[in-house]
């Protein structure tokens, strides 16, 4: 009952803060006395009615959930933040310890599979420090079983797949990507989901180019065009420009390819994305040495 009161109280504060009456908040879809009881913690609302009410007070469900949690992110979000913190600090030791802790947790309680998922996620970032790091056969088998058991891929699966991609060879990545595209149709119009899909396709394009696999590169390029970048996706558009230049270079159009790659690096500099500019500049130098 305390949780119910808390939810109702937060809803009431949002409604009043936007100067919206109880009647307006219901949208004439249900009685405003029912909404009043919810705000006072006296009764619950069905999911359908809550979604209607949230839409009428112009509040996204994710915003409401965030407030109900007391401004606390999910455990998964906290883990991602910790990973990025160690990665930005170039703290390989702490990242390795985090991986080992998740493995220990999983071994202690195999019925909690999210610990192994977390470990695989962390290992995907460990590759940044040591390219020789590989997923174990158990991890790859678990990854396969998990991803192929999920019929509808949401943000978690898309984010997870993008993060573990360094652990997958091109053949596996290609297979997983084709499977992904069949399982995201429910959410493909949502911007955040679409951004992850674009990023995954772009990673596949770069993997294919690095391995000089023109057929796979052409496949990913075609899919990228189908899921075209919006003007808001400036970072991904710039990476795509670099990748397109690299592909042109591989196909023998060296001058045109180098020009596009330099343009991408220049854009990163103009946007003050120094780390990205430096990263792709080193990539260009490596390409020109081949």
Automatic annotation (TrEMBL):
InterPro entries: Cro/C1-type_HTH (IPR001387), HTH-type_regulator_Rgg (IPR053163), Lambda_DNA-bd_dom_sf (IPR010982), TPR-like_helical_dom_sf (IPR011990), Transcription_activator_Rgg_C (IPR010057). One of its GO terms (molecular function) is DNA binding. Gene3D superfamilies: Tetratricopeptide repeat domain (1.25.40.10). Pfam families: Rgg_C (PF21259). Residues 107-282 form the HTH-type transcriptional regulator Rgg C-terminal domain. PANTHER family: TRANSCRIPTIONAL REGULATOR, TRANSCRIPTIONAL REGULATOR-RELATED. This is Transcriptional regulator. It comes from Streptococcus massiliensis.
